[in-house]
Amino acid sequence: AAELEYESVLCVKPDVNVYRIPPRTSNRGYRASDWKLDYPDWTGRLRVTSKGKTAYIKLEDKVSGELFAQAPIDQYPGIAVETVTDSSRYFVIRIQDGTGRSAFIGIGFTDRGDAFDFNVSLQDHFKWVKQETEISKESQEADTRPKLDLGFKEGQTIKLNIGNMTTKKGGAAKPRVSGSGGLSLLPPPPGGKTAIPPVPPPSSTAIANHVTPPPMLKSSNVSS
Hints:
Layout: E1 7-20, E2 42-51, E3 54-60, E4 67-73, E5 81-83, E6 90-96, E7 102-108, H1 112-144, H2 204-208
């Protein structure tokens, strides 16, 4: 994964001054007024780059681009970059060479806006690093949590109870709308009685066709 990481440029400032600083004698912060600000030991270009989660402060020659010194930074604020107590334009950085040796030097910007951009570029990078670390941590915690198995086991069944649908209380039934061209009957008024249609009288044809059964003969053997 480290081989696939590429280097991106976070900030470029064409003018930066480098100073040799006296060793710190106490726990108090560095003071730029203790340096020889009018006589910088080196002047060149500053570039802030990042590769993965590590940022780099690179001091380069303005013309050739040759690297003068480099300061890798894995935390900000931290020991690799410190601000001075008496100015916002000067910083103390820890440079390192390929052999692992390190030294502390002072850097300063003539323009206060350049110092602000330098500071913000480091803050934004490590804010991103913090977010990426939190996202990675949450992802790992989610992977270690037991997963909920919602699948049915062999032979397992489920029972559903579906109740009858009830109508709203106090609501009157709505008449059914007839289809196309159909005629619908309205319900009877409340409290009314339905009239029963009269039975039609028998027709003359039905009377003519009616056959009267013959009278039954009384037997003399049957007593009154």
